[in-house]
């Protein structure tokens, strides 16, 4: 099966390099993406918005689905969760499953994070002090240095553009939530209580939850376990 890996903010395709082996050993075709504006620190990020990232991923979905005649699996980490949900909305008939890695679907009108410090058209990786302690669980000093050395500024409008959705068939696409910072029990409590943070997630008809306790970047802190969790989710659709 074709698996498209969409990174979160400040990351490119290489951020999945320690996750993909488990998927490839299982016989899957893995496609980690570098999204527009994330090609390099020097890339022009002016004018790149959330819809540009959604459209870029949708184009890959179209190509792979047309080549194989099969549906694809989308995996989105952090802000990538909003992007893959936009793609599910745009291509509900071409997605077998959406896997949200320490993320979730962003509903109509929501923004990923418009409070991050920006510099012109760029949103650089903030100082660690601006993150919650739970974000940084298991992210050692060595991993922090490696992360910051590879970080690429995020296009400002990807963080601040509102999500636009139009096809309610998105709720019929099965989803897996790999819960890292917050345990799945907490997410279920929020859904039951009508918390707006999980309002869109609560509308999806078929959701499974997988707990992978660590910080916000499991592709760095627990990459092998993350690869196995994604593999298990994908194999349910074989």
Automatic annotation (TrEMBL):
Pfam families: Abhydrolase_6 (PF12697). Keywords: Hydrolase. Residues 3-226 form the AB hydrolase-1 domain. GO terms for molecular function: hydrolase activity. The keyword DNA repair does not apply. InterPro entries: AB_hydrolase_1, AB_hydrolase_fold, Sec-Metab_Biosynth_Hydrolase. This is Alpha/beta hydrolase. It comes from Labedella gwakjiensis. The lineage of its organism: Bacteria, Bacillati, Actinomycetota, Actinomycetes, Micrococcales.
């Amino acid at each position: 099966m074709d698996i498209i890996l969409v990174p979160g903010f400040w990351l490119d395709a290489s951020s999945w390099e320690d996750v993909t082996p488990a998927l490839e050993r299982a016989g899957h075709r893995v496609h980690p993406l570098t999204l527009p504006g994330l090609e390099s620190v020097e890339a022009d990020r002016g004018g790149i918005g959330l819809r540009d990232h959604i459209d870029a991923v949708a184009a890959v979905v179209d190509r792979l689905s047309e080549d194989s005649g099969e549906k694809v699996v989308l995996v989105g980490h952090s802000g990538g969760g909003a992007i893959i949900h936009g793609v599910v909305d745009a291509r509900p008939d071409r997605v077998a499953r959406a896997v949200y890695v320490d993320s979730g679907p962003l509903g109509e009108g929501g923004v990923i994070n418009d409070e991050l410090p920006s510099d012109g058209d760029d949103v650089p990786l903030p100082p660690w002090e601006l993150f919650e302690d739970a974000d940084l669980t298991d992210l050692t000093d060595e991993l922090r240095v490696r992360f910051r050395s590879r970080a690429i500024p995020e296009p400002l409008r990807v963080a601040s553009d509102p999500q636009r959705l139009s096809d309610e068939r998105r709720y019929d696409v099965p989803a897996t939530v790999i819960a890292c910072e917050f345990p799945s029990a907490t997410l279920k409590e929020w859904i039951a209580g009508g918390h707006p943070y999980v309002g869109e997630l609560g509308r999806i008809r078929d959701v499974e939850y997988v707990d992978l306790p660590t910080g916000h970047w499991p592709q760095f802190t627990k990459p092998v376990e993350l690869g196995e969790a994604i593999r298990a989710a994908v194999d349910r659709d074989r």
